[in-house]
Amino acid sequence: MDFEFLIEEITRGIVNFTWQNGVMVLVGVVLIALAVIKEYEPVLLLPIGFGCIMANIGMSTDVGFMKVIYDAGIKTELFPLLIFVGVGAMIDFSPLLAQPRMVLLGAAGQFGIYGTLLLALLLGFPMNEAASIGVIGAIDGPTAIFVGSKLAPDLLAPIAVAAYSYMSLIPIIQPPIMKLLTTRKERLIRMEYAPRPVSRLTLVVFPIFVTLVVSLVAPDAAPLIASLMLGNLLRESLVVDRLNKAAQNEIINIATLFLGLAIGATMKAESFLNLQTLMILGLGLIAFILDTVTGLLFGKLMSVLSGGKVNPLIGACGISAFPMAGRLSAKMAQDEDFENFILMHAMGANTAGQLGSVIAGGLLLALVSGMV
Question: What's the pTM?
Fold first, then answer.
């Protein structure tokens, strides 16, 4: 009798496994391979890939423990917010505070969000879905998930996969654009770094001030900005070292693991293998490219207005993706001149982009909510 039951269970599993499920299992394997072999954003692509495999062998977010994880962390937006606490604890805003003009590059690096929103509308997506697709251009996974889960939960899987995949592909996608839009002479520009001294008081007041201002200007961004700034306050207060370390390690690691599994577990064949998913992935790539292009063009404008004192490469890291984008811009400058150090300038623009992506996400939520 037990043997017959076993045969019945095996048969049921095989019968329910379609070729579409097989394709999605291969997609999961590819994501895991990119994480393990290429080391592309492994802490996210690996659990997303494994979650994708789980979803297509009967363990999706519709049933079982994956449903519990999804309901507790994605529907409530808890996981993205916990990750933002950890990110905030890792960010040093002193390069930005010492160079306030970098805020302009952080704003320019968000253009792709709104440009892609308009393109998605032209392609027939409703406003809520177009806004969720556009936010992929933030190149900021938690922001994309937070906005997507509120505006278009049915599209959350492709949006999250696109956001994190393109973030991991920054070293591949951005360099050709940076070389195409800048001359070697521009990439050789050396920027003097004579930082203004940033007091501890300023560093402590900054996260509180930003939380208040952004929450009043863009209330829908309040949860995101508050989480980010809470993490930063833990870092800069210098009095809660255990909480700061926990935010940077245990909290962000656990939240990232469960978020990745939950997102991957939404990648069921019937909802993922369609033309709409391909369009979302394509639009996300366009958003990323537009962000990089507009950031570089604004960097070139700043270079002209400053009399050639600004290296346009720092415009490319006005997107979020902290700290990868900042490090890449610095590396591109050093590839031309090993003694050219623009890292602190790049980090100033990169942290501005991190703030810009959160504010842009909040403005999208407010825009769409006002139209519904």
Answer: 0.87
Q: Angle 42-55/64-73 helices, nearest 10 degrees? A: 130
Sequence spans of domains, the chain: 67-371
pLDDT in tens, 281-333: 999 999 999 999 999 999 999 999 999 999 999 999 888 888 888 999 999 99
> How far is 93 from 98, CA to CA, in rounded Å?
9
